[in-house]
Write a structure and sequence with these properties.
The structure is a single chain. The chain is 33% helix and 28% strand. A seven-stranded antiparallel beta sheet has the order 1-3-2-7-6-5-4. A hairpin with a 5-residue loop joins strand 2 and strand 3. The longest helix is centred in the first third of the chain and has 22 residues. It starts with a strand and ends with a helix. The N terminus is likely disordered.
């Protein structure tokens, strides 16, 4: 059910990427359901895992295309080395801040064309992880719970040195 792309020099391949997409999806979704048991605020999660320079390893089904250059800029923003993403984000997103979380900084934003879609970007031990989460009946409390849940998933990936 996932889209996989073989990568050349970065050392990860599609078979390696899929389990981590499955893992972080299961972890983040389970944490969110614990925090938000109501179907009124159900969430659909999609992930992108790849190299910091934008090479993609694996994505969830339906994850929209994202340019390699944009991934590199997003990754650099999380690392604190490029803040241009705030003034010139890739369409259709707007990014508002980098939040210090337990697993490190997470860039937070929204999709301007898809109502209720949040976008979170984090660096793992060796890679970049992008999360799109569509939240039914979104509000600031649900956004925070989704961010916290994503952070737990990222922490688990980091603890496995991915």
């Amino acid at each position: 059910p996932y889209s996989f792309v073989r990568c050349g020099s970065s050392g990860i391949n599609a078979e390696y990427g899929q389990p981590w997409i499955d893992f972080v999806h299961g972890t983040a979704h389970a944490e969110y359901v614990k925090k938000v048991p109501s179907e009124d605020n159900a969430a659909t999660w999609m992930f992108w895992l790849g190299a910091n320079d934008g090479d993609v390893y694996a994505t969830s089904p339906g994850f929209p295309a994202i340019a390699k250059e944009d991934v590199a800029r997003l990754s650099n923003c999380v690392a604190g080395t490029d803040q241009s993403i705030f003034g010139a984000p890739p369409a259709p997103y707007s990014f508002v801040r980098c939040v210090d979380c337990d697993s490190g900084a997470i860039l937070t934003g929204k999709d301007k064309k898809t109502p209720g879609r949040m976008c979170y970007i984090a660096k793992t031990a060796k890679n970049t992880l992008i999360c799109l989460v569509d939240i039914k009946n979104i509000n600031s409390s649900m956004e925070q719970k989704a961010l916290e849940s994503f952070d737990i998933g990222v922490g688990q990936v980091i603890s496995n040195d991915v």
